[in-house]
Amino acid sequence: MNLEFLGVIEKERDGQQMLTDSAWLEYGATVDAFVPPPPQFGMNPATGERIELNRWPIDRAVKQGDEFLVVFLWESIDTPYGSGQIVVKGNSNKREEAIQFARKCAADLDADFIPS
After folding, report:
1. What is the pLDDT of residue 56?
2. How far apart are CA 90 and CA 42, in angstroms?
C-alpha cells in the first residue's frame, strides 16, 4: 500500500488558522472509524538500526480491511497557540474514496479540504 499526499484540512478565517488541536481531538472521539495511524519508521543515526518513530497521539486513520484508506496527521501552527492544520494522506489505490472521507471530516469541522 502506498500513501500519497492528498491535501490539508484547514480552517482559516481572516488570515488566521482557527482549527485547534482540542477541536480535532473532540471530533476524533466521535468518529467510530478512526484508528491509530500506521507506524512510521526511521533510522537511529548512531547505530543505523531501523526504529519505529513516535507519532503524535492526536493523529488518526481509517482502515478498510487490512489496508489504510486515509491518514490524518496533525501539524501545529502556533499562531494562535494550539491551532494548526491536518495533513491528509490516502491510499493511492482508493484515492477518490479517501478524498471523500477527508471532505466529510472537513465539513464536520466547519473547515476546508484543500487538495494537493
Report:
1. 79
2. 20
* 10-residue mean pLDDT series, the chain (116 residues): 92 85 94 94 95 89 96 84 90 96 97 96
pTM passes above 0.85: yes
As a three-state string, the secondary structure of the chain is: CCEEEEEEEECEECCEECCEHHHHHHHHCCCCCEECCCCEEEECCCCCCEEEECCCCCCEEEEECCEEEEEEEEEEECCCCCEEEEEEEEEHHHHHHHHHHHHHHHHHCCCEEEEC
The answer to whether 19 and 108 have CB atoms below 8 angstroms apart is: no
Instruction: Please state, in angstroms and rounded to a whole number, the distance separating the CA atoms of residues 4 and 90.
Output: 5
- Residue 14: what pLDDT? 83
Contacts of 14 (CB under 8 A, 6+ apart): none
